[in-house]
Amino acid sequence: MQNLPATYLTSFYLAPGHDQQIVDLARTFPAVTILQVEALLEQLRSILAQVTLAVEYVLLFVLAAGMAVLFSGLQATLDERIRQGALLRALGAERKLLVKARRIEFGLLGAPAGYWRHWGPNW
Predict the structure, then answer these.
(1) Which of 9, 46, 51, 64 has its CA 20 to 30 A from that of 81?
(2) How far is CA 6 from the centre of its chain?
(3) CA–CA separation, 55 vs 63, rounded Å?
(4) Runs of H (alpha helix) within 8-36
């Protein structure tokens, strides 16, 4: 069969709505493998959309867990902060000074976290 003519066709474009021609081609040449690339790409898009949705849900769960840990950490140190504030008030500190100290404290805790999140490594 080496001397018989052969044609190798790697791909061709068939306009949408001509599905019957693909069926006819497959019936005429049963040894030919026909792959509908658009159907494969659509399946791939569907899988990627599902994976993206799953990652978004995981991200929301991690964000909620982080907020819960942050809140519990603040609640755990609330008594100590109240005692420190009362002691400073007894020593003559004004409420304005205590509010300013808390803002500075939380600012110093949040600034490195924000810096790391924005300019840190992109893992």
Answers:
(1) 64
(2) 49
(3) 12
(4) 19-28
Residue type, 99: V
Specify if 52 maps to a domain. yes
* d(C-alpha 109, C-alpha 105), whole Å: 6
66, part of any domain: no
- Exposed/middle/buried for residue 101 (C-beta within 10 Å: 0-12, 13-18, 19+): middle
> Is 26 within 8 Å of 34 (Cβ atoms)?
yes
Q: Is residue 70 part of a domain?
A: no
Would you say the C-alpha torsion 17, 19, 20, 22 has a positive or negative sign?
A: positive
Same domain, 123 and 83: yes
pLDDT, tens only, 69-116: 888 988 888 888 889 888 888 988 888 988 898 899 888 877 877 776
- The answer to whether residues 89 and 122 belong to one domain is yes
Same domain, 1 and 33: yes
> What's the structural domain count of the chain?
2
Range of the domain at 94: 77-123
